[in-house]
Amino acid sequence: MERTVVLITGCSSGIGLHLAVRLASDPSGSFKVYATLRDLGAQGPLWEAARARGCPPDSLQILQLDVTDSDSVAAARACVSEGRVDVLVCNAGRGILGPLEAHAAGAVDSVLDVNLAGTVRTLQAFLPDMKRRRSGRVLVTGSVGGLMGLPFNAVYCASKFALEGLCESLAVLLPHFGVHLSLIECGPVVHTAFLEKLEGGPGGTLDGVDAETRHLFSLYRRHCEQVFREAAQDAEEVVEVFVTALRAPKPALRYFSTERFLPLARLRLDDACGRSYLAAIRQAVFADQLQEAGAGGPEGPEPGAPPAGPQ
Length: 311
Ligand SMILES: NC(=O)c1ccc[n+]([C@@H]2O[C@H](COP(=O)([O-])OP(=O)(O)OC[C@H]3O[C@@H](n4cnc5c(N)ncnc54)[C@H](OP(=O)(O)O)[C@@H]3O)[C@@H](O)[C@H]2O)c1
Prior knowledge:
By secondary structure, the protein is α/β, with parallel strands linked by helices. It contains 9 helices and 9 strands. The site of NADP nicotinamide-adenine-dinucleotide phosphate has 32 residues, from helix 1, helix 4 and strand 5. This is 17-beta-hydroxysteroid dehydrogenase type 1.
């Protein structure tokens, strides 16, 4: 039996790590997984997880791949001994949180380079062969932050919104070549190392930021803690959505790790001028402050709006 060759970016931790061992240990034995890491020095947890899941010895191979470096992407591709990748998972990503003006020099470029340009580089490296073979699946790790703007996540959301445009555009074209692309919309919160690895740390440098913004940021963080308590998902649960997409005979463009936040996404589309969404998200995130002021904020509250998440 010819195995399905899968290559995943960003497997040192979190969703990438769990997806790699999930597929490599699949009882069907039908996957050969190339789990790629930016830094091979960080492969310990992946091997540990593979051992714990009982992955057969030749089901998992680790390769170095830094999505910010085209040579590294090309070198990883050249190491795939089967000479083809059937399923590409563009998962590598980095978060950035805080007031826009608090982001350190280079931090914004770095996040856009990984999340957007890195995905483009990876797709450029692997898509031509899939198109030539008229076969292939691409899964891209999207985010609730790519479907709606969230305060203090402006740059992260910009990067994930950009992925929506990138992927939706490609998804129009690729089926002509027998290639299918799906976005796996994760979050808002998945238990991974994501928040520990935020570019510039948790919130950036707040020293030069005005007091009102700092206060709103503290309200936002309180809101995030609540979302975490109520809605955080385990990576193991989320990777099953990737497996569903991968196995779908006719894959959809978007899959969601939870439907809990879809009402907010719908609100954006239903009221295209944006008023309803902005009112709902303000109410959800800054509700404490609005209540203290005894008012509904600039646009008035949207009662019953679900909470927005941090990513
Ligand atoms: N966790 C959430 O709540 C959440 C929600 C929605 C979407 N997502 C998305 O899910 C994806 C995976 O994140 P996660 O939650 O699993 O967090 P994670 O544990 O921090 O995993 C992110 C992975 O991306 C890798 N990465 C960063 N820069 C890279 C580069 N230049 N080249 C290659 N790999 C690189 C990281 O490697 P290093 O360890 O070497 O930095 C790490 O392996 C990301 O795209 C993220 O935006 C996460």
